[in-house]
């Protein structure tokens, strides 16, 4: 899964005193991180022997100076960077990022949202996906489950993003012009109770001849 990277460049230059703030320059989009998803961050401090980087929701990632920041509630998050220099002195800086919520995800089948007309076979083969409309970064959510509401109001619960055997058998019995509803779509596997995840709109499917 690919996400955007925030590159923090901590300049040594003219700052010699241990109590002097170090300038921080962000190389990416307006110092914004997104709530509820892992935001990769790379912290670079030339000349430092080691770094201590802390923030709520921050963890170390694979690779040199790579971190993952997953913000929770609140409108901002502060990343604290402490650079340990070869002579043992420490340089410290705090970097504040704005935290934004994700745009509302849109469930789709065959690239369409809301209302779709499909044959029974097309519905049987359908894959339920999530589209992040208008989102500037490459972000892909996985569908972990959903429910299929039949014309008789019976509900078939499904794990994954494709129809299971029970759903397939029910679809085979549908008549042209009948409608089913794809709803209760699960796209967050382990939801954080502190985060207001967007509820997904259902998809209504009308059976074609």
TrEMBL record:
Q: Which residues form the Gliding motility-associated protein GldM C-terminal domain?
A: 103-207
Q: Which InterPro entries match?
A: GldM_Ig-like-2 (IPR048406), Motility-assoc_prot_GldM_C (IPR022719)
Taxonomy, superkingdom = Bacteria
Domain called Gliding motility-associated protein GldM second immunoglobulin-like: residue spans: 24-100
Task: List UniProt keywords, sorted A-Z.
Answer: Signal
- Which range is the signal sequence, renumbered to this chain? 1-18
- Keyword Transmembrane assigned: no
Any single Pfam family the record assigns to this protein: GldM_3rd
Descriptive protein name: Uncharacterized protein
What is the scientific name of the source organism? Flavobacterium cyanobacteriorum
């Amino acid at each position: 899964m690919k996400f955007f990277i925030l590159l923090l460049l901590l300049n040594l230059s003219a700052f010699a005193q241990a109590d002097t703030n170090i300038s921080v320059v962000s190389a990416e989009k307006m110092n914004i991180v997104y709530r509820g998803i892992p935001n990769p961050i790379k912290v670079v401090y030339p000349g430092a022997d080691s770094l201590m980087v802390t923030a709520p929701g921050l963890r170390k990632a694979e690779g040199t100076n790579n971190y993952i920041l997953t913000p929770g509630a609140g409108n901002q998050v502060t990343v604290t960077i402490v650079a340990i220099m070869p002579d043992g002195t420490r340089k410290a800086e705090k970097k504040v990022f704005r935290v934004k919520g994700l745009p509302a995800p849109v469930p789709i089948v065959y690239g369409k949202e809301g209302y779709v007309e499909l044959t029974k076979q097309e519905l049987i083969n359908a894959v339920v996906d999530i589209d992040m409309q208008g989102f500037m970064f490459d972000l892909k959510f996985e569908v972990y489950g959903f429910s299929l509401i039949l014309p008789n109001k019976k509900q078939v619960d499904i794990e994954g993003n494709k129809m299971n055997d029970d759903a397939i058998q029910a679809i085979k019995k549908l008549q042209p012009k009948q409608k089913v509803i794809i709803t209760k779509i699960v796209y967050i596997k382990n939801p954080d109770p502190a985060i207001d995840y967007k509820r997904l709109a259902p998809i209504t499917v009308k059976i074609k001849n």
